[in-house]
Amino acid sequence: MKIAEAIGAAFGTFSRIPVPKSAWTDFGSTHALAAFPLVGLAEGFLMTAWGHVANLLGVPATIVAAVLVALPVAVTGGIHLDGLCDTSDALASWAPRERKLEIMHDPRAGAFGVIGVVVYLILQFSLFTALSLTAGALLCSLVFSRSLSGLAVECWPAARADGMAAGLSPAKKRAAIVVPLCAFAAASAAGMVACAQAVGALMAVAGLLVLAWYRHVALSRFGGVTGDLAGWFLQWAELAMLAMLVAGGMLL
């Protein structure tokens, strides 16, 4: 029952998939991050199913790619793209740390945020158009990115004491959250390797390199992580792994 509460809270927090009200308990809310990778698993299953159906129906590659871009937004409600938008605005401002945090907290989207999201979606659409390797590796990458994102929130300092990242990271619950996230990360990395061999290993490396970049940016420019930064990392990590998957398909 406790595990179900955490899973329900994870889907209720990080997706638009309906969950029963019974999931919203103190335990579920404080342990939602431990089940965060399962949202990526659900998203990956939907994207894989669409890919198979489109292949059977002979749907043009551009339409397949457009739906693959739209599906994650439909599943998550755009929560991670919002983080990408807000963080792009803050980084482009070159303002002092406190001002950057204020910009991210502002619900209005600035020009640089809109530009960042548009460029991201164009790159993602282009990569999906060229995708030819196994969908299993793509599915695993969505779990891997969320595992790394959750671990960063749990293990790195929070930039704001009252932010979403701080609220999801109660220190006394840390082991109960870190252990499942580590298990998800290891299993999904192994899954990428099993599905795409050397390309899968390179995908995992790409995700870890983006994680290292994320840590540098978060600590040096913001003093820690925030919910927006977590979404910003998630999007770029998934794009980097998708790029590696497409490059592997072209080379092999």
What is the CA-based Rg, rounded?
18 Å
Number of helices: 11
Specify the overall morphology.
globular
SS class:
mainly alpha
Distance between the ends:
46 Å
Portion of residues within helices: over 70%
Major sheet description: none
Count of distinct strands? 0
Mean pLDDT over the full residue set: 88
Strand residues, percent: under 5%
- Residue windows where pLDDT falls under 50 for at least 5 positions: none
H/E element string? HHHHHHHHHHH
Characterization of the model:
This protein has 252 residues and is an all-alpha fold. Helices cover 79% and strands 0% of the residues. The chain contains 11 helices and no strands. Helix 5 crosses helix 11 (227-251). The longest helix has 49 residues, at 174-222. The chain is globular, with a radius of gyration of 18 Å. 45% of the residues are buried.
Labels describing this entry:
252 residues, mainly alpha, 11 helices, globular
Topology:
Elements: H1 2-14, H2 26-30, H3 36-57, H4 61-76, H5 79-93, H6 97-105, H7 111-130, H8 135-155, H9 164-167, H10 174-222, H11 227-251
Helix pairs in contact: 3-4, 3-8, 4-7, 5-6, 5-7, 5-11, 7-11, 8-10, 8-11, 10-11
Précis, in short:
The protein has 252 residues and is mostly helical.
